[in-house]
Q: What sequence folds into this?
């Protein structure tokens, strides 16, 4: 199984996961047209995508989901509360597959383990995903205000993790956001900072972790070099042999073997 982050940030999020038999999108927070353009640019046939897995109902995660599901004729994998709240934006969906956080389920040859995280949405999900017959796991840990004990436990399992590193706390506090928005971002239902991402890894770093992708970086309150260098210093201090990547808003990552 391999993964490629197609876009990551407040203007839209979309992750492509491709196994031997099944490929899915995690979220579709860009327009259908834009996602099709990116897939064309990376030479990935849209016909190979078999479903869209939805994390939560914020528009930067579901903007194009309904249109893609209808146009590609593929199911939407979504928990019931998220679907209910996002119904008007999703529109008519040809096939729905509901899951529950805390209950593993299979889709074709993929095993998906969704779990709840604290975020200002109705029922946010993060995911562990693996492919039948293979031990490696992909963790998608973004859009959460703080790492709960459950998050920490789940983080001990993946070989590749897409991890939120949304903001630098000093840039956020001294930046242009209104105070209420600063409070939202750094609150327990907001987003992980660079420091929080490092602190989480400090607790859960394990020998099986080989790839870290820093994601959902704020264009206003963070800088790619700042997030990358901070995490890189930590990994060197811990003598961790992990590959480190940055997921960008306007440029897909390379293919990463999970």
A:
């Amino acid at each position: 199984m391999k993964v490629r982050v197609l876009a990551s940030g407040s203007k839209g999020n979309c992750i492509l996961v491709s196994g031997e038999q099944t490929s899915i999108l995690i979220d579709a927070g860009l327009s259908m047209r834009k996602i099709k353009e990116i897939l064309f640019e990376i030479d990935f046939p849209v016909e190979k995508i078999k479903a869209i897995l939805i994390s939560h109902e914020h528009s930067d995660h579901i903007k194009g989901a309904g249109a893609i599901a209808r146009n590609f004729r593929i199911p939407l994998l979504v928990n019931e509360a998220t679907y209910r709240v996002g119904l008007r934006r999703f529109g008519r969906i040809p096939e729905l597959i509901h899951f529950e956080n805390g209950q593993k389920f299979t889709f074709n040859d993929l095993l998906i383990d969704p779990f709840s995280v604290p975020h200002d949405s109705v029922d946010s999900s993060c995911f562990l995903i693996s492919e039948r017959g293979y031990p490696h796991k992909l963790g998608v840990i973004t859009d959460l205000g703080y790492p709960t004990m459950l998050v920490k436990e789940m983080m001990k399992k993946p070989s590749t993790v897409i991890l939120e590193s949304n903001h630098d706390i000093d840039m956020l506090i001294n930046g242009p956001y209104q105070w209420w928005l600063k409070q939202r971002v750094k609150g327990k239902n907001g987003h992980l900072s660079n420091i929080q991402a490092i602190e989480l890894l400090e607790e859960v770093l394990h020998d099986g972790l080989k790839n870290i992708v820093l994601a959902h970086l704020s264009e206003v309150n963070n800088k790619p070099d700042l997030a990358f260098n901070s995490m890189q210093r930590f990994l060197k201090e811990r003598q961790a042999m992990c590959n480190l990547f940055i997921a960008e808003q306007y440029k897909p990552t390379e293919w990463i073997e999970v």
In short: The domain at 2-257 is CATH 3.60.15.10 (Metallo-beta-lactamase; Chain A).
